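[step 3/7] inverse_fold.run input=structure_tokens len=261
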């Protein structure tokens, strides 16, 4: 049996995944990738899980790929790894549940790419971000060239990818890479608080909003607006929409119960 490289827990309707390979700063070995993907897939269709949080502990989020596995890799092996291997970024980005990552210490290369696949990024003041692949003769291979530019713009993305330089948490906040920076001792609870807030929202509307934002970003404006209209209209079929409207009229907090019609 493979050694467990994760710690998972449930806190009510929030599912928490902790990368746990501390001796390697959570470097993303093939086994660690496979275990993260398996954990994500285990709750993909679980309607009792209303938000997902991922973090790497207080010392490091993930210090990129495990270079020991890459030294002798051939081009075809690299292609197969991307196309056929466990893909954390795709598994995370495609979740219908809202996702939060909590980042302390290093988030480099593949580690940074994982953070960019989440919906919300909370950073400790100790966090360090970077796409240093250029420094070992590579380029980002798990979405870094695409997601980074979409998050922070072409100018800053090219600077980070072409130079391979690192940035600290406050620079990450300034350029829009993260949502909030907190003291290291507050990171876990702050990220979980965001996950709890997301989990309390109406799930159908949440999932539709995520879908329309993600799919509409690269579409023509008219196509995006059509997707928005269809999703907006569909939300009126849910009990959560009726509950939200009634609670507003009654001046009370709504109690959203999921997708039941």
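[step 3/7] decode complete -> sequence:
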């Amino acid at each position: 049996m493979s050694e467990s490289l994760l710690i998972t827990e449930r806190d009510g309707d929030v599912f928490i995944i902790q990368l746990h390979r501390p001796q390697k700063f959570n470097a993303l070995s093939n086994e660690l990738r496979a275990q993260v993907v398996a954990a994500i897939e285990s709750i993909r269709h679980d309607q009792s899980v209303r938000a997902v949080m991922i973090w790497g502990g207080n010392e490091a989020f993930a210090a990129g790929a495990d270079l020991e596995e890459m030294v002798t890799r051939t081009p075809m092996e690299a292609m197969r790894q991307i196309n056929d291997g466990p893909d954390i970024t795709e598994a995370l980005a495609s979740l219908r549940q809202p996702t939060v990552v909590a980042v302390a210490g290093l988030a480099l290369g593949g580690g940074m790419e994982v953070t960019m696949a989440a919906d919300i990024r909370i950073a400790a003041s100790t966090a360090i971000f970077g796409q240093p692949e250029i420094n070992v003769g590579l380029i980002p291979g798990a979405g870094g060239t695409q997601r980074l530019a979409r998050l922070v713009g072409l100018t800053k993305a090219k600077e980070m990818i072409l130079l391979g330089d690192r940035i600290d948490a406050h620079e990450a906040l300034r350029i829009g890479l993260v949502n909030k920076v907190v003291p290291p001792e507050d990171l876990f609870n702050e990220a979980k608080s965001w996950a709890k807030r997301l989990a309390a929202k109406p799930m159908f509307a949440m999932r539709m909003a995520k879908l329309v934002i993600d799919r509409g970003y690269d579409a023509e404006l008219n196509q995006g607006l059509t997707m928005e209209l269809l999703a907006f209209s569909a939300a009126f079929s849910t009990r959560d929409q009726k509950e939200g409207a009634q609670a507003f009229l009654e001046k009370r907090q709504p109690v959203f119960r999921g997708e039941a019609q």
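[step 4/7] annotate
Strands lie at 6-11, 14-19, 51-55, 60-63, 99-103, 106-108, 120-124, 128-130, 166-168, 180-182.
The mean pLDDT is 91.
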